[in-house]
């Protein structure tokens, strides 16, 4: 019996390339975040039982340093000490983002990259909250001295989430939108001979 000829419905069963790239980016973002947290935890001597203990490494004196912080809240220290609520929300958000990557019909690569960055960052912080009920932060931006002004400490996961949100907003306000596919125009049959007017 001859081999079956593939039809369009069977030839397109695999995930589109943009979705495969997005899933790979999720894994990469998660890996970078967990690796950087683990390395900085060891390098700075961070201990969840003693959250106030950490070494300080000045990278740009007067502006940027590495200093370990244990964050009991969400990004940039908001909503502290609400671990159960934050865990529940983060799990639901991660599931929603994963489904959004798989089922959304947009052809925008930028949208898929944005969702992947947010999901990778959310999973990285979810791991910390599940393991320690708080998140390892170590990137600190300040002005002249932390006593004068300091932005809340953050980590790679927070950066991925913020960049993903910014890219989505950029796409919504300045990017090219997906255009609906126009339906094919109806073709009128030629007039029968002798009926032309």
Features:
single chain; 197 residues; alpha+beta; 4-stranded antiparallel β-sheet; 5 helices; 4 strands; 49% helix; 12% strand; elongated
Verbal overview:
By secondary structure, this protein is an alpha+beta fold. It has one domain (16-173). The chain has five helices and four strands; from the N terminus they run H-H-E-E-H-H-E-E-H. It has helices at residues 8-11, 17-44, 83-103, 109-132, 156-174, and strands at residues 56-60, 64-71, 135-143, 149-150. Strands 1-2-3-4 form a four-stranded antiparallel sheet. Strand 3 (135-143) and strand 4 (149-150) form a beta hairpin. Helix 2 (17-44) packs parallel to helix 4 (109-132). It is elongated, with a radius of gyration of 25 Å.
């Amino acid at each position: 019996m001859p081999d079956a000829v593939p039809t369009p419905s069977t030839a397109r069963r695999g995930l589109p390339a943009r979705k495969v790239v997005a899933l790979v980016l999720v894994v990469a973002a998660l890996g970078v975040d967990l690796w950087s947290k683990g390395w900085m935890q060891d390098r700075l001597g961070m201990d969840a039982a003693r959250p106030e203990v950490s070494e300080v490494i000045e990278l740009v004196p007067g502006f940027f340093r590495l200093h370990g912080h244990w964050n009991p809240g969400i990004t940039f220290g908001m909503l502290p000490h609400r671990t159960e609520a934050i865990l529940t929300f983060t799990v639901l958000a991660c599931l929603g983002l994963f489904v959004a990557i798989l089922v959304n019909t947009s052809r925008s690569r930028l949208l898929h990259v944005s969702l992947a960055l947010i999901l990778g960052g959310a999973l990285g912080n979810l791991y910390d909250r599940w393991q320690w009920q708080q998140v390892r932060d170590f990137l600190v931006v300040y002005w002249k001295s932390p006593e004068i002004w300091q932005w809340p400490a953050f980590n790679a996961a927070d950066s991925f989430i913020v960049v993903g949100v910014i890219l989505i907003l950029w796409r919504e306000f300045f990017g090219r939108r997906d255009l609906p596919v126009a339906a094919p125009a109806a073709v009128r049959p030629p007039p029968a001979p002798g009926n032309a007017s």
